[in-house]
Structures are given as C-alpha cells and as structure tokens.
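Entry 12.
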Amino acid sequence: VNDPTTYLALRTGASGEPLKVVYSYEVKWDKQDMAWADRWDVYLVGSPDDDIHYFAIVNSLMIVVFLMGAVATIMIRTLRKDIAGYNEMQTLEEAQEETGWKLVHGDVFRPPSFSPMALSVMCGTGIQIGCAVTLVLLCAVAGIVNPMKKGQALSSVIFLYVLSGSVAGYFSSRLYKFCDGKAWKRNTMLTAAAFPGLLVCMFIVLNVFLSFAGAATAVSFWLIIALFLLWIGVSTPLAFVGSYFGFQADKEEVPTKTNQIARFVPEQPFFATIPWSCLFGGILPFGSVCIELFFIMSALWLHQYYYVMGFLLAVLFILASTCCTVSIVMCYLQLCTEDHRWWWKSFMNCAASGFYLLLYSLWFLSSKLQLVGVLPVVVYLTYMTMISLAFSLFCGAVGFYSCFWFTKKIYGAVKVD
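Predicted 3D structure (tokens):
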C-alpha cells in the first residue's frame, strides 16, 4: 500500500519548474468573560479523576468518624463512669485503692525530662507549617493563587511560611514557659532557624552536586542568599515578636499540682512503647490522606495538574482531625497504664506519619517513576525527605496540643485532694 512507485505525482509547470503549494488558515476570535487563569477548566472540570477524589474524601471521613466514635465513647461512657467513681470516694482507704489514670494526677503535668526545648521548638514549627499551608490553600480556593503555576504556589508557601514566624514563636514560647524554661532567646532562635536551616543545608548540598553535574535545575547562589536574607530580615524578627507575647502571657494553668518526686512508672506492654506505639499511631493519619497523596505526587513528579484545592483543603482538616483523635485515644490508653510520660509520645505517635510518607515515596519511585542515573534519584529523595519532615512536624504538633487539651479536661473534672 505504501509503495512510492504508486504515488500520484503532482503536475509541474510547462518548463518543469516545481509546483508551488500555498497553505492558509483562518482564525476567528470570540470574546469570552472567562478569566485567563481559568482557560483550562474546560479540560479539567468533570475529569474522571473527580470520582476518585470524592472516594478519597469519603474514605478519610469514615476513618475520622470511626475515631471520633472511639473518642466519644471514652469521653462520654468510660470517663464519666471513672470520674463519678473517683468523686464518690470519701475515705482514705478508698482513695488508696484507686487505679487507672487518676493515679498519675500528680505527675501528668510534670514537664518532660528530655529536652523540653526541642519539644517546644518542634511543636511551634509544626503549627507554623500548618498555618502556612492552610493560608496557601485558602488563597488558592479564593483564586488569589493559581494552582496551575507551580512556581507561584511554591513561592506563596515560602512567603506565607516566613510571615507565620510570629505564630511559631508564640506557641513555642508558651510551651517552653510552661516547662519552666529560662533560655527564651535560644528557644526563639531555634524556633526561627532550626527547620529552615536544616532545609537550607540539605538544599545547598544538593545544589552543589547539581552544579558540578551541569544540571539545568541548579539554583543560583544569589537566590540562596536572597532566601537567607528573607529569613534573617522577616522571619526571625516575627518569631521574636511572637515569642515576646508568648512569654509575657500568663503561664498555662493546669487543674492539678505536680508532686516533687516523680511517680514510678510500671512496666508497659510492648505495643505502648516506642517505636511500636509510633508505628501504630502514624498509620491512621497517613491512611486518611494516602489516596489524595497519589494525585499530589503525580502533580509534583509526573507533570500532571492538580487543581482541586477545595478537596485538598478538606483533606487537610480531615488529617488534623485524625491526628487529634488518634493522639487522644492513645494518650488515654497510656494514662490508664499509669504512664504519665505522654509529652514526647503524643508528639511522636502522630509524627510517625512522615515515616509512612517516606516509605510511600520509595514505592512511588520504584513503581511510577523511570529516573535514569543516580543524580535524579538523589534529587527526588532529598525533596521527599524535606516534605516528610514537614509532614511529621505538623502531625506531631497537632497530636501534642490535642493531648494537652485532653489531659486538662479530664483532670479538671475530678476532685483531687
């Protein structure tokens, strides 16, 4: 069929000159009221992936409903029964025979023995990350940030993260003051510099390798200096402003007094110890977002579009709700075993979700990406490690403050002599 000898030759002129073929086209411009940023919506809205997004939301909501049912059971049935029983104890003999979480009322608000400075810094940074991401998603839903422009979205995250420095300084200083910390300047500097400094160090090392390899993705040294000046000139002063208000505020009030001597902690079952409790506690927050995470990873690494920012905002609130409920349930179970060391566990149990995110990124690398060479793999793993660290800090901070609120509520409802 495709035989050149059977082709129909074009006729030429009388003297054999080649025949000139003139091509033309016509364009008709229609004026539309649609904004320029929304010009691709006709291809994106109504996509078959929308059903999967709805399924992801329903899947996450089912997890949250299940966990909230567990929390409601603890708060309404178990705790009400325990509190009524504790408040009815009249004699000393009855008080001495009490068991369960009320036994540790004199130690539950004892500051952590291991580095309260690090805990306050990590919790403040996690709240800052959550504020920045929430503000970016709200701007995207309102049309201020265009999700199609990935560079604009990334710049918005960095800019709003810097502006949220006062939030981190306030929450970090409040927690550090509750732990009777005195080195408030060091606390503020670490809150402002620890996480951004770690990311900048990782980025500089990666950028050196990219520069030696002559990669187009290498960033100019002056851009790194500009980001450093942005941090020095904006984020750090804002962190000090928030820290000032945090330290000037009254110390957080708790319903019970702390004993001078710490209570002996009995031997715990294996599933209540680190790292097993972290592995159990981190899987549910990650499971609530794993379906939506596939589309985000595809947008980051497979050059696809992610445009449903309303879905992503709902998933963010579902993630926070899951972290709250998981941390409260695990904190209650821990207190029932007479273990009052809930501070770091409440943070680590939910922060372990970042470990599952890192494992998911390894699966995504092996099954979906076809990277050639060592350097692209190093770039991918470096950026996914940064994202996993930010995810861990946010989930851990939400889990910690949920447990702090929970312990104040339950111990404020019982009569303690």
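Annotation: The chain has a mean pLDDT of 80. The two ends are 99 Å apart (CA to CA).
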